[in-house]
Specification:
By secondary structure, the protein is α/β, with parallel strands linked by helices. It has a single domain, classed as Rossmann fold, CATH 3.40.50. It contains 5 helices and 6 strands; from the N terminus they run ααβββαβαβαβ. It has a 6-stranded mixed beta sheet, sandwiched between helices.
């Protein structure tokens, strides 16, 4: 819930800023993550971990980027500024990259399998990085907004679905930015 409160304040701080052009958005990079961890064999199957200072356990923000589900429009680096800002405020951040429709294995069901795998790996990494998995929020931009909504609702998948999993990391809240 803190994320939902912080985002409007951050947006209002720059209310007079000129609209960003696509080239400017594509050039965003932000601070470096503390770790890059693969959850699959494909080049796009990894997540970046940002861990705040302190003893923890830390609440976790899962970030999923947009880009029209294609490689053409950005990727994981566009959310690093948000990841850095959340880390400064005491959140651990799991910034997820995924296979998109124009990559081998992307699209359906690959993109959704990537979301499962990324969250499974987050669960596996929790102890080593002092992550509080009882306090997980998912934030997605554009196509990522659609994917985080799917993450939040995936526990309702019927057992007959090829995307059904017995054990899923629960997400307590979702923030969809233009998704």
């Amino acid at each position: 819930m803190i994320v939902a409160a912080l985002l409007p304040a951050a947006l209002m701080a720059n209310a007079d800023a000129a609209p960003m052009k696509l080239d400017d958005y594509m050039a965003l990079s932000g601070p470096a993550p503390d770790a890059r961890i693969a959850y699959g064999a494909a080049p796009s199957q990894y997540a970046e971990l940002f861990v705040p200072q302190g003893a923890g356990p830390f609440p976790v923000a899962v970030l999923v980027h947009g880009g029209c589900w294609t490689e053409k429009f950005g990727g994981i680096t566009q959310l690093r500024n948000m990841a850095g800002a959340l880390r400064e405020r005491g959140f651990a951040v799991w910034n997820v990259e995924y296979r998109r429709v124009d990559e081998a294995g992307g699209g359906y069901p690959g993109m959704y399998e990537d979301m499962h795998a990324a969250l499974d790996l987050l669960r596996d990494q929790a102890g080593a990085h002092r992550l509080d998995l009882e306090r997980v929020v998912a934030v997605g931009h554009s196509a990522g907004g659609q994917l985080v909504q799917w993450i939040a609702g995936r526990a309702r998948l019927p057992k007959t679905s090829p995307l059904y999993r017995e054990r899923m990391l629960p997400v307590r809240a979702v923030v969809s930015l233009g998704g």
